[in-house]
Amino acid sequence: MMTVKDIFTASEALKTLVSLKATDAVPAIIELLDRDHIGREAVIALGELPDIRAAQPLADRLEKNWPDAQKGLIAIGPDAEQFVLPKLRDSKSRVRSIACEVLAEIGGKETLKTMKSLPADSDFGVRIAATDAMKKINERTKGR
Predict the structure, then answer these.
(1) Which of 44, 55, 72, 116 has the fewest Cβ atoms nearer than 10 Å?
(2) How far apart are CA 69 and CA 62, in angstroms?
């Protein structure tokens, strides 16, 4: 179990790694994601050190660490699309909705193709988020 001193030290270390843009530390930061008391700060740090290696762990935490995981995936950008797309089929409507919000910002033609192939979501909120996402992606990718 981490002591208060350990949590403080880990928190300060994460802030230092971010300020140094130490992407070499991304694997070590990923290991902290499931640690009590420091996991949220690790998610935030990964969002500030956008790196493709963090995309899957952040996608897996869309609901648990909302909105920080969402911001991190958006910071990673289009490279994270492949890790977010499967979340459109998640059993939880909240995850599907957040995935739509992320994909609205980073998704491209593959996202449009996938979204159009899925049946209409059973959740009204997800349907709205999906429609909004497809509009944003269409506008962004028009002519590409």
Answers:
(1) 116
(2) 5
